[in-house]
């Protein structure tokens, strides 16, 4: 007994304008098709559209191969020195007047040497710096920050400029109470006097022997110099704070000075 055949409806029948032996086109492809005249051939329209040959770039910088696949140009890495970075260095209130008086000496090294954009913000009590397209050194912003911080601590402008010219200079700060617990202002004043000496002779001797710069600001001590030189100067200062006689400290400084001369 033959199998029953399925009934065909009017919806299953192919359109009348297409031959029966050709497959039907997808309806989704015809949703956004432009309204073209019936007598215009689509193949002729496609032939008039210019196509780039293999390896040839068009106006957008994109190449198209023989199969019509796009070939984009390789991406370019962003130079980190060209990115804009901002640093804000806080200035103590007691240093604002000194900053204003020395501002003509501060901004030229930052602008001319490091190629930074600098401004002083008295309202927020900060010095703002940022990189620009002219900044070539990646560490220019860090050098500028160290320079301004050294000036904010109390160092002279000429001493702080050395941070911009030399790469192996650092600043180390510590307080007297970090070395020894001092009770009362009198004991603290005596410790500072032992470090400074009469007319600053002890401090100058330590600076000349260790090739450093020492700053005494209340109970805070800051040392500017190379890493090994900072260690030598700190040992001498710690010995004076702990009560070691200045004569022994001078003897150690002479030995240190002789070693420094042999190295150089």
From TrEMBL:
Record's GO cellular component terms: nucleolus
UniProt xrefs under SMART domains: KH
Region (Disordered): 1-78
Main location (coarse class): nucleus
TM region positions: none
Cell location: Nucleus, Nucleolus
Coiled-coil regions, chain positions: none
Compositional bias per record (Basic and acidic residues), positions renumbered to this chain: 66-78
Gene3D superfamilies: K Homology domain, type 1
Function in brief: Required for small ribosomal subunit (SSU) synthesis. Has a role in the processing of early nucleolar and late cytoplasmic pre-RNA species.
Subunit: Component of the small ribosomal subunit, ribosomal RNA processing complex (SSU RRP complex).
Name this protein carries in UniProt: Pre-rRNA-processing protein PNO1
Organism: Sodiomyces alkalinus (strain CBS 110278 / VKM F-3762 / F11) (Alkaliphilic filamentous fungus)
């Amino acid at each position: 007994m033959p199998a029953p055949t399925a009934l065909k409806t009017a919806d299953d029948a192919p359109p009348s304008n297409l031959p029966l032996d050709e497959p039907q086109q997808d309806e989704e492809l015809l949703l956004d098709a432009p309204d073209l005249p019936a007598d215009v051939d689509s193949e002729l329209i496609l032939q008039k559209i210019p196509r780039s040959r293999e390896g040839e770039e068009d106006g957008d910088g994109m190449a198209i191969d023989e199969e019509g696949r796009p070939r984009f140009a390789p991406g370019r890495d962003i130079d980190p020195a060209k990115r804009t970075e901002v640093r804000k260095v806080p200035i103590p209130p007691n240093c604002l007047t000194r900053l204003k008086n020395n501002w003509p000496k501060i901004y030229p090294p930052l602008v001319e040497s490091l190629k930074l954009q600098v401004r002083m913000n008295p309202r927020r009590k900060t010095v703002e710096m940022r990189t620009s397209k002219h900044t070539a050194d990646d560490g220019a912003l860090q050098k500028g920050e160290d320079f301004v911080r050294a000036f904010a601590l109390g160092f002279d402008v000429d001493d702080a400029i050395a941070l911009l010219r030399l790469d192996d200079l650092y600043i180390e700060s510590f307080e007297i109470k970090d070395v020894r617990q001092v009770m009362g202002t009198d004991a603290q004043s005596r410790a500072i006097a032992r470090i400074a000496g009469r007319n600053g002779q002890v401090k100058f001797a330590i600076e000349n022997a260790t090739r450093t710069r020492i700053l005494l600001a209340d109970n805070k001590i800051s040392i500017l110099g190379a890493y090994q030189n900072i260690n030598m100067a700190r040992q001498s200062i710690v010995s004076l704070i702990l009560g070691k006689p200045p004569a022994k400290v001078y003897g150690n400084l002479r030995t240190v000075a002789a070693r420094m001369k042999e190295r150089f």
